[in-house]
C-alpha cells in the first residue's frame, strides 16, 4: 500500500475518532445539564429570562472553548516537547530544529487557537446574556455587550482569552524555532486560567484554597487531554517517532494525573465539606460521576504503561492506537461533565457568612498575640504545593547525585531547606492569617519573602544542582530539561534581567510602585492578585540575591568588591521606604483596611506606621547575613585560586618546561634572582662597609 493511501486512511480514522469523542462529550454534557437542573427555566420575580438559546448555548460554547484550548495546548506541546528535535547544525549542542511533523502541529495549533478564540467570543456573548437576563439577540444589537465586558469579571476574563488565543493563532502560522514554540505553549497556558478563576472558585467558602485548586486542575488537564489527543492522532496517521512521543507523554501524563487528582479532591472538599452532599445534592452527584470517570482514566493510564507502551516499542502500534482512541473519548466525556458541573450551583455554605469572611475566606481571628502568630495556622494551598514541589525536586536531585557517586555540599542542602522553612513560617502560620488584616503583619511577610528567604534559596544553588543531576538529551541535537535550562541561562532575556542594574531596579522600584499606587489594594482584594504579589516578592528578591551572591551560573559575575558596593548602595532604599511609610498622613488601601478593620486593633494609619518601622529595621538582618555569606565566598574563592595556582606550578615543574611556562613559577624565579643579586652585592662590599 502506498504512503498516500496510508495517510488517507489515517485521516479518515482521525475524523471518525473526533466524531466519536465529540458525540461522547455532547451526550454527557446534555445528561449533566438535565440532571443538574441548570437548563431548567427558572422564573424569578424581577429578573428577566435569557431564553432557551442562552441556557443551552452557554454550556455548549464553553465546552467547545475548553476542548479547543486543550487541543491547542496539545498541538503546541507536541511541537515543543513531545517530538524530538532534528540534529543541530555542525554538531552544536542544543542547536536542533523542529521536525516537519512538529511544524505541522504548529500550523494545526494556529487553526485550533482560532476555533478557541471564536468559542471564547461566543461564550462571552452568552455570559453577558445570562447575567443580564436578556436574549442573545438583544445583547448583540444593543450596547450591553460593550458596557458590561469591562465590568463583569467573567467578561474581562473571556476577553483576555480571546486576545491571547488570537495572538497564538497568528504567531503559530509563522513560528519555526523550538524556543518560539515553547513561548507559544507558555502563552496558551496563561490563557487557560482566567475563566475558571472567575467562576465558583472565586466565591467558594474557602476561596483561597478553591482558586489555587482550580488553577492547578485546569493547568494539568489541558496538556493531559490535548497531549493524548495529539498522540492518538499521530498514531492514527502512522507518523514517525511515535514510540518516543508516547513514552514522553506517558511520563508527563502520570504527573498530570496526580495533580488533577489532588486538586480535584481539594476543590470538592472546599465546596462540599459534608461527604453526604456527594449523594444528596445535584452538584455532589455530578462531582461523583466525574470521580468515577477520573478513576477510569487512571486505569487507562496503568494499562498503557504496562501493556501498550511495551507493545509499541516492539513495533506493534495497533493496541496503543485503539486504547488511546477510547481514552480520548472518555476524556472528552469527562470534559463535558466538567462543563455541566461548572453550570451547576454548589450547595450554599452552612451558617451566616460575615462580610470579613466573604473578603478573606475566614472569620475575624482573635486579638493578635505572639502565641497566636505561631499556633493559628492558615492553610495556603498554593504555597504548600510550592514548598512541597521545591523540596521534593531538590531532594530528588541530591539523591540522584549520591546514587552515581557524586558529592553535594551539605551546607547548600541545609540552606535550601532553611529557605523553604521561612516560606512556611510566613504563609501557613498565624502570620498568613493576620497578614490580610494588619499591614504590620503583612510587612513582616513581605520582608521575609523578599529579603530573607531568597538568600537561603540562592545559596542552595538549585540551578547548579539541576545542571549536574539532569541527564543530557538521549538524541543529539534534541532538547531535554537540561538543554532547555541551559538555553534559558544563555538567552537574551536572562542576560537583560540578570544585569545588576536591572535586577536592582526591579528589587527596589517595584516595592515603591506597588505600595504607593492602587495596585496594592487591588492585590489585597483578589486572592489571585495576592498570590501574584507575594510571588513577586519572592522572585524579585531571588533575582537580586542571585546577582549579588552568584553561586549559580549567571550571564555576568560581579567581583567581590563590586558585590559589596551593590549591597551597601541598595539596602538603604528599603530604609527610605520604611521612613516613607512612617511619615504617611493617610492610610494605604483605605477601602480594604476599612472593610477588614479588626475590633481589637488600633487605627489603620498607626498600624501602617508600625509596618514602616518594621521595614526600616528589618534591612539590617539580611545585610548581616549576606555579609557573612560573601565573606565565606570570598575566602574560599581565594583558597581555590591559590590551590589552582599551586597545581599549575606543579604541572609546569613536572613537565620540565622551565619556570617561564608558569606565571607563579616565573614570579618566584624573579624574586629568587633579585635576592641572589642582593646577596652577591652585599658579599662584594665585604669589609669595606663603614661600621
Rg, rounded, reads 31 Å
Query: Helicity range of the residues?
Result: over 70%
Strand content: under 5%
Structural class: mainly alpha
Oligomeric grouping of the chains: single chain
In short:
The chain is mainly alpha-helical and 691 residues long. The chain contains 31 helices and no strands. Keywords: Cell membrane, Membrane, Transmembrane, Transmembrane helix.
Secondary structure blueprint with pairings:
Layout: H1 3-36, H2 52-82, H3 100-132, H4 136-141, H5 144-149, H6 153-171, H7 178-192, H8 194-197, H9 200-203, H10 207-236, H11 242-271, H12 277-280, H13 282-313, H14 318-342, H15 355-360, H16 370-375, H17 381-403, H18 410-427, H19 430-434, H20 439-459, H21 462-469, H22 481-489, H23 492-497, H24 500-515, H25 519-525, H26 527-549, H27 560-582, H28 590-595, H29 604-618, H30 620-655, H31 663-685
Helix pairs in contact: 1-10, 1-14, 2-3, 2-7, 2-10, 2-14, 3-6, 6-7, 10-11, 10-14, 11-13, 13-14, 17-18, 17-21, 18-20, 20-26, 20-29, 20-30, 24-26, 24-27, 25-26, 27-29, 27-30
Pfam families: Caa3_CtaG (PF09678), CopD (PF05425)
Membrane topology: Multi-pass membrane protein
Domain Copper resistance protein D: 245-341
